[in-house]
Amino acid sequence: MLSLKDILSTYWLRVQHELLPWLDEALGPLGPRHLQLFGVLGLARIEALVPRFSGLVGRPVSERAALARAFVAKAVFNFPITIMLIEMPGADKTLRQLCG
pTM score, two decimals? Predict the structure, then answer.
């Protein structure tokens, strides 16, 4: 029986070989943190974890998912304060596109 680490490693190798060439063409070359964020978002499936409220006042569902992805990016990029998260996507086009 495979351990969780082996299963995740196999999954990540498959993602790298099949999806990353396409991603490099769409977004340009990705740095190591961008690749790590992409892997975390792919494994976490954050959109499935964000509650979906229909008909309530507030942010639309798509913006809630983008906000959740941005806070995952804050953890991956190890930003100590949220203001860095707010300013960074303005300077980093790839991060902005990954977060939505």
Answer: 0.67
